[in-house]
């Protein structure tokens, strides 16, 4: 009766109900949406047979995670994928999966929370990154900045949260030619300074820097962020001064600043 179904949306609450046992019969299904869908249940329900699937979100990697991730390699048409509950030991299998996803456009990876505010490491080492990837969101600890991210030539939007990076990520990102939106939020960076260098981020239009408790200075060289239109700063309690060079952002249209010191000294647009 539902063999021609193309979209199945199970997002009826914040918890996921049982996966339909006959999901494998929905051969034309293109979009499967839910909250914390169990990958174990999806495998048992025949997720690997849905070769037309383009959207799979959001799936939690539970028991037997590595074997379950390998099951997703059959879904070669995926455009959008959201995975949560990722552990360090999943890194190799997940990297292999993503290397095979040649049509992937949007990816969200969230690591498992061990205790409050302490997340597992996202350990991805991509050899041939998805060439069509436009939107990337990483929620979880990164031991170092992933070397494969700057190779994503079509990446338009990047969000890093809870990464706990200690090395300034700006120097790795500023030469990305397609990047339009960058978010560094919620303890994504634990260092004290961010430096935007001359000539960097020539196409970036939106910049969000939020919830970085250790950050005490932002330096914007003249010639950096040349076409930035929207800049948001919030929840940075130790930012000791207005970002140096903010007056050079001539294209800026929206400046949102709250919960930072010296708010009254920021430019009024």
From TrEMBL:
Protein name as catalogued: NB-ARC domain disease resistance protein
Record carries keyword Methyltransferase: no
TM helices/strands, residue ranges: none
Entry-linked InterPro entries: LRR_dom_sf, LRR_R13L4/SHOC2-like
Keyword vocabulary terms for this entry: Repeat
Domain Disease resistance R13L4/SHOC-2-like LRR: residue ranges: 2-257
Presence of keyword Cytoplasm: no
